[in-house]
Structure formats: C-alpha cells, structure tokens
Amino acid sequence: MCSFEKCWLNYACNEMSSKYAGIFKSIYSDFDGTVTGNTIAEIKEGFGIFFGKEPVLLEKQANMCDGIWLKQYEKSDNKAADEFEPGTEGYSIYYDGENQLIVVAASGENGVMYGVFELLRIIQSGRDICDINICHAPKMPIRMIDHWDNIMGDIERGYSGDSFFFKENEILFGDRTKAYARMMASIGINAITINNVNVHEVESYLITDRFLGMMKKYSDLFVSYGIKLYLSVNFASPMQIGGLGVCDPLDDGVIKWWNETSRHVYEVIPEFGGYLVKADSEGRPGPFTYGRTHADGANMLAKSVSPFGGNVVWRCFVYNCKQDWRDRKTDRARAAYDNFAGLDGQFDDNVILQIKNGPMDFQVREPVSPLFGAMKKTNMFLEVQAAQEYTGQQRHICYLVPMWKEILDFDTHASDRGCISEIVSGKAYGNRLCGMAAVTNTGDDANWTGHDFAAANLFGYGMLCFDTERSAQDIAAEWAACTFGIDKEIVDNVCRMLIMSWPAYEKYTSPLGIGWMVNPSDHYGPNVDGYEYDVWGTYHRADCKGVGIDRSAATGTGYAAQYNSPWRELYERVETTPEELLLFFHHISYDHVLSTKKTVIQHIYDTHFEGVEDVERMIGLWKALEGKIDAARFARVLERLTVQYESSKEWRDRINTYFYRMSGIADSKGRTIY
Length: 674
Ligand code: GCU
Description:
This protein is globular. The strands form four sheets. It has an eight-stranded parallel β-barrel. A six-stranded mixed β-sheet has the order 2-1-3-5-4-6. A two-stranded antiparallel sheet has the order 8-9. The relative contact order is 0.08. The two termini are 51 Å apart. It is an alpha/beta fold. Helix content is 35%, strand content 11%. A hairpin with a 2-residue loop joins β8 and β9. Alpha-D-glucopyranuronic acid binds at residues 156-157, 197-198, 278, 282, 317, 361, 389.
C-alpha cells in the first residue's frame, strides 16, 4: 500500500464513465519530450480508470478518431475566445464529436500537460466532454511554491508531518517526490523552492558539490513536470562556506565567489531557476551590515545568475524585530514600504521582490501591503501562506482562497491598471517576471496536508494563480468533487464548510483587524497579551477605554499615508476606514457605534459567540455525510473538527473575558462571560 494518498488526483468512475466507455482508445501526439511522456502516462492512468481501458499511443495518421490528440496549436484551434494567445503555457481543448476525438492544442509541451490536467478534472468532476470548448492561458507567469523545509527533516511552521525532501542532513528522493511533482504540475505550479528561507549551516551547502548531484536529480524530475527548481540561499554563504571574512555585496572577493558558485551550479543544473533570499530579516544576514541597500545585495546575486537565465527572488519581509513596546512611533507595518519603496527602478531585470500580502505577517485579516502600489519599475511576487500558521495550523478549517481573492482584487490606485492581480500578473507594467508564491502546507503525512480540508488551500492556490478570475466557490466545488466524489450532497456540504470557514475563524479569533492575540512562538491558540509587551512590533494597545493602533498620519504612526489616494484619506479617518480593518488603523473606544448599530464591545462579544456557532454548523454539515465518505477520511476530519470546536470555545471565552474585564461593559444579551 502507498504511504501517501492522492488528494484531488483521486480519479474515479462517474456518470461520464458509462457514457464514454470504450470510446477513447488512442493517443496521438505532436510532441515527444519528457513532459509529454508524463502527460501521456497521466492520460493512460486517468482514462484507464474513468473509461475502463487505457488508451494506446499511436502514430499520427490522416483520419484520427476515437481518442485524444495532443496537438501543436494553430489559430484554427481557437474555438472559444475571440482573442487568445496560448503563449508557452496556454492551451485549447475541444471535442470533435464526429470523430470522437478530444483535441488538446498548445504551443509547447507544458501547455499540453496543463490542458490534459484540466481535461481530467473536467471528467473527474462529472462534466460532459461533448460540451468542452476551452481556451486557457495562465494569468501569472511564475506560480511558485515555497517550502520551509529544513535539511534535518523538520518543517518551520509545518503542520502535516516532516519534510519529504530532507531527513537528517540527507536528501530524500523516491516515489513520493515524483508523486509530489505530479501533484504540483496538476495545479499549474511552475517553480518550487525546496528549502526554508531561513538557511542554516548545512543548507548553505545545497549550492555546492556536496548536494548538487541530488539537486540535479530534483531539477530533472521537476523539469519533466514543467517546474523550475529554486533554492533558498544564505546571504552570508561567502563567509559561512566560502572562507571569506565578509559578505559585503560590493566587495570584489564576494562578487567573485558568487559568480563562480553560480557558474558551477548552472554547469551541473542548466535548468536551475535561481535563488530565493531572506536577508536582513529576523536575524538573517544581509546588506545592511555593510551599509548597503537591498538593491546592492539583490543585484550582486542577480548578476551571478543572469548569464544562465537565472532569477533572484528577494523577500521584502524586513523589519525591526527588536522593538520596544513602549515606543509608539516605530510601526512594524511601515517597514516593507520604508525599506523598499525608495528603491523602485534600481533592481536588475532578473530580480523579483517577494512581498507578503499584508504589512505584518499572514494574519487572518490585514490590509493589503502598500508596497505593491509604490513600485512601477520592479518585478513583484505576491507572497501568501497556505501553511496555516496564524489561521488554525491545519487543525482548524480555514479556506484561504476567498482571502487571496480579496487581495488580488484590491485596487492600489497606482495606475488605471493598479489591481494587485494586474500588477503581479505583469499586465500593469508589462513585466515578464512576476507572479505569486505560497508558503506551502505539505508534509509527509499520508494525506499530505494534515487536515484533509487544508488541501483545498493548496489546490486553490494553484487554480487561482492560473486563473485569478475564478470564484472561490467554483474552486471549492471542483476540489470537493475531485477529492471526495461528485455526489451532490458531498459537494454542497463540503463547499459550505469551506466558504464559511475563513469568516468563522476571523469571528472567534480576531475582531476588526486587530490580530496577534496568539501564543508567542508557536502561534496556536489564544493569548491576548502574548505579544503585547514583546519586541516584535505586534501590539493591540487595549486599555480600559478602547483598543486598536492609531496608524493615521495626523496622530498615529503615519502608516495610512503609505497608500495612494483615495486609500490614504479613507484609512486616515475612523468614519471611512472599512470596518473589518478599524482596529488595525485606529484606537477606538469600546462604545463606538459601528454601521451595524452595535458598539465595538458588543461586536466583539457577538462575533465570538457566532464564530463558535459556525463551527457547530460545520460539524453538522460534515456529520450529514457519514456513510458517503470513506470511513477513514470521515473520522479523520471529524476528529479535527472536534479539536477546532474546543479551540474556538477557548478563543471565545478568553477574548470575551479579557475585553469584559478591561472595559467593565456587560454583554447586552447576558451570555456567560467569565
Ligand atoms: C514568520 C514566521 C517565521 C518565518 C517568517 C518569514 O515570522 O513565524 O517562522 O521565518 O515569517 O516569513 O520569514
């Protein structure tokens, strides 16, 4: 038996199976590379299960019929959209009913592979092939996954077991590696960084002969699924492993060291994607030590890989993590903008800045980082976190696709094409290198993601990068059908659970954008003052009169002024700040009345009771599926829902009690608060 499951690649017979049984006997292909090899294997496996018989690869002939044709794209293959350019990764799919031939047409192998995976999802979720008429090309040029796996085998912020890449300073490679590459290809991922952004001593050697042979094996496997391998590197490598006394990016010896190191990396792995760098952040070394800018640091590395077509992804998660809580002027939220906005235009063409979605750190609710609206001459990635560090750690269901969609839809007003989705897809400023990166939520648990429902975030991330216009509901429904089967009640209930989960989590944890009321270090469970008197810049500033941080320009930290108009004016004033972010931008008294006619304190009480009730509803929806879902997965999910329920009550009671004691104002509905 396999030690891992198939997630959404759980091909199974359905109504379409009998309708098309025995028809698709042949595969014809205009392509013949390694990606095509994997694509054909996928068709055989999928069609074998769906239609009862594996099709056979045949030579192309004049009258092709009764099968599937992987076809070189021509204009006449566009049967759907008026304007469609497949590019290197797009495809069209249509059905020629007369010849019983499914055509998947693309300009290259990767496009064909993505088309085939979409075709298989269509069949898997019970839609009829005869209606297919699709032209799709990915919206994001680069669709990246970042692993925070350490070479010892543990995963930073990992909630689903250990790494399946590393164990005790060795590299793992086996069936699971291949299954993983296939899974990522199936959702359109084309870049993967396999090691943690915090690069410790041994990981620093990943770019040396000690490990490059294995990295080459990884790259070859990934390339056969259309994926580029990236590695996180230690900015201080010239010192850590190169024997130099400095890592100053303008030092000749350092420049030479990186040039030689990168040249060697590309000698061994010509297809290598490039480096991911966390510098001057949370104790990691960086250019600041030498009075250099982040552009100096990034460009030095970028020049070392540019002759080989490589990229440098440089993270903007740079802030002072040794703050004094008494200091009300320093504001962590300002940091990314303050450190990077002024450098717009100074980065080399093959540098991409990776910017976290919000100004803090993957909280359940944050405004969108103002840095996206401040740069027009810089390649940017939107970084999100599928790993649920602050959103229930894969013990709670928290479907993040609706959050990511809100972020992508946010208009920075930097230009008339200033939406985040336009910026990071390269449409706003014509960038070639841009896209999204997600900190992933996988590990070596049999189901890959700990909570079965957490796989919806991984799947959804891929789907959204490919097509930012797809709805969260539509993605949820497809995931549910592919994972659990097409039974209507299953799909309906699973979708309802997913769609209600992010609002529910927000309700029982974090009122009105405040965030951070978690246990320090492990970030699980409530601890209202856990970070209040700490050095991390993460405060709620609650007192007996009110709660929230004044980030206005007039009286606060000035963060609101980092946005373009009209946001800067809207966030500046209490009356015009969107209420879900009210406490993020302002210190508000408990008796302030919201648009719902409730006071802030009553809102806190009500949402915390409601959040727990929502979890009860989710449990009811799941229990209704007993007997329809296989017993093992049913029990596994129910167990986690029970954990979520207990935890949500703990959150409710701690938060409500804290603010009741702080404010002295009773719940108008007289419910139990301690
Ligand atoms: C968070 C997280 C760290 C991580 C960091 C990062 O602070 O808690 O574990 O290293 O983000 O994104 O670099």
